[in-house]
Amino acid sequence: MPEPQPITTIAPPLPGRAILEQRWSHLVFLHWRVPSASVAPFLPAGTRPDEFDGGSWVGLIPFVLSRTRPLPLPPVPWLGTFAEVNVRLYSVDAEGNRGVVFRSLEAEHLLPVLAARAAFGLPYEWASIRAHRRPDDPGAGRSAGTLLEYRSARHRALPAARGDARTRPERPPRTLVRARMLSDAAADDGLDRFLTARWGFHETRRGRTTWARNTHAPWPLRRAELLELDDELLAAGGFPGLAGRPPDSVLASPGVITRFSAPRALADDSVPAPSRRR
Questions:
Q1: I need a surface site. Which of 9, 29, 222, 235 has the fewest CB within 10 A?
Q2: Cis-peptide, bond into residue 72, ω within 30° of zero
Q3: Beta-carbon count within 10 A of 52 CB
Q4: 242 and 270 Cβ atoms separated by less than 8 Å
């Protein structure tokens, strides 16, 4: 099996023409180190947990998505701008492609949720999300920054994106993330690159594992402080208790413009069925 491709902050060229463009803004990256064995059951066939520092990682990432446009069309007014909160894992396939796997993606607008489910097989969930941003005046001796707050509550209106709807919690999951994005650049270390320089996602679509590439400029990463976290999305995604301990990594970014190419099926997506759980 080939070694995973090197981690680089410079995106490799897309394998075909770009079909979608979006801007991602005001991101907060919260990550927890977990045993790889706890991640493996949730990954698509033909992929395995990508590891750093002896384990795999689970991310909770709120941000604002805007200026969505199917290329070469212009941006979609209103529908193409909304807040999103995703729970994601880290994967690598038999070809060495490093990517992410989404456990859930909360989004404000129903039509983009339905479109992303149909086009990419992504587990989008319709939610009510409030995003707030304001300059922070930290006082003498502290770095200036920006306060970011995201509050999300999932609606009941849609069937489960994955699995049996009867297994869903009685009350749809919610989350609250409050963080301070500092003006100082984050340390350019191996972990920061591992968690953010991900140039595609793996997903299961129509029974096959697919790989979709994306590209954007290097992340402008900032140091960040987590001020408050009250989260149920991690537990709903299969990681109960994780939100009860401080994250092992906290980062933020003002954002990037990203482009996606069409997903393609992996040549080898075989893995023993009992090891997978959706």
A1: 9
A2: yes
A3: 16
A4: no
pLDDT in tens, 63-101: 999 998 888 888 877 667 899 999 999 999 999 999 999
pLDDT digits (tens, 9 = 90+) for 199-227: 999 999 888 999 999 999 999 999 999 99
Closest by CA position to 191, among listed 251, 102, 234, 242? 251
Run of H or E residues at 117? helix 110-120
User: Dihedral through CA 79, CA 85, CA 89, CA 92, nearest 10?
Assistant: 30
Q: Backbone dihedral region of 36: left (phi > 0), alpha (psi from -120 to 50 degrees) or beta?
A: alpha
Tokens of 278: 């959706």
pLDDT confidence of 231, banded at 50, 70, 90? very high
Q: d(Cα 54, Cα 84) in Å, to the nearest integer?
A: 30
Structure tokens at 265: 């099926």
pTM above threshold 0.85: yes
The residue with tokens 């493996």 is 40
Which 8-state DSSP code applies to residue 243? G
Tokens read off for 51: 């590891």
Nearest to residue 62, comparing CAs of 233, 227, 177, 186? 177
Cα gap 248→273, rounded to integer Å:
31
Q: State the greatest distance between any 2 C-alpha atoms of the chain, in Å, as a whole number.
A: 58
**Distance separating alpha carbons of residues 65 and 12, to the nearest angstrom:** 23
- Contact yes or no for 200/212 (Cβ under 8 A): yes
**How would you label 153-164 residue by residue, b for 16+ Cβ within 10 Å and e otherwise?**
bbeeeeeebbee
Q: In whole angstroms, give the CA distance from residue 149 to residue 129.
A: 10
| Model confidence at 273: pLDDT above 50 | no
What is the rounded CA–CA span in Å between residue 54 and residue 205?
30
| Residue 27 and residue 253 in contact, taking contact as beta carbons nearer than 8 Å | yes
